[in-house]
Amino acid sequence: MSKVLANRYELFERVGEGGMSVVYKAKDRLLNRFVAIKILKPEFISDQKFIESFRRESQNAASMSHPNIVNIYDVGREGNIHYIVMELIEGRALSDYIREQGPMAYPKVIALSKQIASALAFAHKNHIIHRDVKPHNVMITPNGTAKITDFGIAKAVNAATIVDNTDGIVGSVHYFSPEQARGGYVDEKSDIYSLGIVMYEMLTGQVPFDGDNPVNIALQHINSEMTPPSKLVDGVPPALEHIIMKCCDKYPVNRYASADDLIEALNNLEFVGSVVGNSVLMGSGTGRETTRIRPQKNKGPIAGNPDYDSGEDEEYEEPEGRKKKEKNKKNNKRIILIAAIAAAVILALIAVLHFIGGEEIEAPDFKGMTMQQAQDMAEQMDIKVKEGEEVISDEVDKGLIVSQTPEPGQTIKTGSTVTVNISKGLGDGSVPDLTGKMKDDLSEYLEAAGFKLGAVTTKSSDQPEGTVLSQNPKAGSEVEKGTAIDVVVSDGSKAKATVPYLVGKSLSEAQGELAAAGLSAGKVSYDYSSSYAEGEVMWQQYDAGAMIDKKSSVKLRVSKGPAPTTTTTTTAPAPTEPELDGPADGN
Question: Which of 119, 359, 424, 475 could be 390's S-S partner, Cβ–Cβ 3.0 to 4.6 Å?
Fold first, then answer.
């Protein structure tokens, strides 16, 4: 007999399993539709912090509606079962495609990457960071649409999980950003790094860092240089390789500032390919083609014109009798348009050929130099240096180069440009926005931004306990580095809790579940019952699923078992003599 959750969701078959959850195909009896239900594994339900984070993030994710994000319909709990109800995707995980097909064609990599980046951009604008972007969490529908999932579970993963022996968790380490591997604060740029690793794997069929254990892999993300994709497979466009390497830069400041910026870079790459032909984007090697511009005559065909002829070049002979009078205004417009298109193509060709031309050399190491020193060295090597951003650094003195793109030792070509970021020391900085963050995360986050945590006061609120409600100085203020930031956090006194299903559980189990939900057991009464064994809860004050104030108490009634059977002894009356004339009078 199939299992039914919440009197609504009928589970049929297991369709997937990860490190933290099992996924079932189910039917929503209320709406009469098939859904997917993700159920947390038992080993995670005892971690209350994990559960609270899982619930909160899942509810936030449920508010998002985007064509490249798997829709979440419901989040709930029944007894010890924590579950998410989501859209059922008829398709396969991206990890399956990569495993079976190996390296993917780069136009397909670009198309899928743009879809995934679009989903992340939408989530980031809604203040949701995925934290676990990997091919296993991307579903591909039969029509080629990418849909990302697992926003709810991702936040609960912390640095400690990298040493877990569960396959799903270990797999995630291959896509961790360096800051995740260090157990540090993660933001939108961490998702961009992980997407860069996914792009790398789609393009090459393998991840850039691998090893015998998750700790070793994490250390590679922090310390090891990534092998460029072009060293592993042929035909990788240099511009696409540059995009991937920028996503995977070990310094967050050197990555794309947002997923929208990454999409723009991919769009630009596609545009150049559409204008000058994909072959021009390819590096040197076998199979490289030459773009050929077809000569145009006075009435020659052009792309996009209904009369366009895609055949071989032919000599154009003006028919006898076609005179100047036939060169009307329409033909003049065609000639102007042809010239404009030809000019655009030639300019694009010049730009692309300049990009891919030149002698291959290794990028020098400009770190620790002044801008003038870097320019002097660059001039000797026939390359250019461009100043990028001013960044905070407690290791490199103010005015010296902190980092660069491309990295030292990476293959570049003469005439190319290296962008360098300049240290501004500790300096002044913009106060980050702490609103909505959890108190436990503040110290590390502020330290990374060059500030420190000041006074922490509490205020009555319906937000979860420890959530930052306000701050001083305000977000965006320019203040001296090292300034203490005071915060006001929620005491959780008005926060709501979901009443668990307690009937049929032992009293100790019920008390434990109430405590895990932020509630407590109230008055406990006892009564006989033939339906519940002795010690089992047979009634609870509030229905399961009801939302009540946190720290409230819930009255319980516990079975004493079946009522005892009362044995009655009946004594037969003594025989009496029959009455004759009337009642006896004692004489």
Answer: 424
